């Protein structure tokens, strides 16, 4: 689909995207690049990074890749410094790196829980903290009067409760909290906007293939009337809105982009049945004399 945004809306900006080599992170990298930004992507797997950078470059996007693990503070520091050295400034940080697997809580080890917290929550905080001196108003390399922008990729799992996702629910709840707290502190002190996106099920992503493999989704679709699958494009367009001047007054928000999926409940009665039943119940309630409640006092 064609973008509704002007092709130069991010011209001159530099974006660093963790987990930018695959899935939603790669689509965000692509679309930020197509809208004028230069792109640095950070990831753990060299071959994934190389393939992603080549794909971005083939679209005419100025792109580089830096190997690193967001769980390691020294990697975060090095990648942010390398991005600055390469481009001369950093305007946008997107935290898209995440880890996940389905597991019943009773089978999850403390280390398994901690691993996802470390990638999603601690990693997000570490990247934000290390990028602060470059993103803040008047910070290193900034030639604009405003601060930069941070975007944290979250989820909707923790809005209610999610089967076999205790670790990710806890981690994404922390991410949303980081988004709000940094929006308050860094929005006030440094003119940095901090927002998030909570994607629903998105086609062709590692998240969907890990959390809802075909064996599960075929059944789920029967039971969830609102069940629809989004595209990576949906997330990337929301990302452009939030990190560009289009969203200049948006700060501290996590935008749910899920087609209403998290609101879904199994429909217990078909619509026509409810209409019939409702008429019968209404008629009955009008026919019945209204009882005066008796009081024992
Ligand atoms: C139970 C598991 C497990 C599983 C790992 N562990 N997989 N426990 N069931 N399927 C446990 C291990 O036993 C170990 O604990 C601990 O977790 C660390 O595992 P490692 O394999 O050593 O970790 P590592 O190699 O660092 O890999 C991290 C990872 C892996 C998260 C486990 O899956 C990964 O690298 N993922 C990145 C890519 C990814 O998942 N992308 C999808 C993101 S989708 P013990 O106690 O044995 O030492 C996404 C969507 C979010 O985030 C929301 C959607 C709605």
TrEMBL record:
It comes from the Eukaryota. It catalyses: a (2E,4E)-dienoyl-CoA + NADPH + H(+) = a 4,5-saturated-(3E)-enoyl-CoA + NADP(+); a (2E,4Z)-dienoyl-CoA + NADPH + H(+) = a 4,5-saturated-(3E)-enoyl-CoA + NADP(+). It is an enzyme of class 1 (oxidoreductase). GO terms for biological process: fatty acid catabolic process; fatty acid metabolic process. Keywords: NADP, Oxidoreductase. Signal peptide: none annotated. Pfam families: adh_short_C2. CDD domains: TER_DECR_SDR_a. GO terms for molecular function: 2,4-dienoyl-CoA reductase (NADPH) activity; oxidoreductase activity, acting on the CH-CH group of donors, NAD or NADP as acceptor. Its EC number is 1.3.1.124. One of its GO terms (cellular component) is peroxisome. This is 2,4-dienoyl-CoA reductase [(3E)-enoyl-CoA-producing]. It comes from Gossypium hirsutum (Upland cotton). The lineage of its organism: Eukaryota, Viridiplantae, Streptophyta, Embryophyta, Tracheophyta.
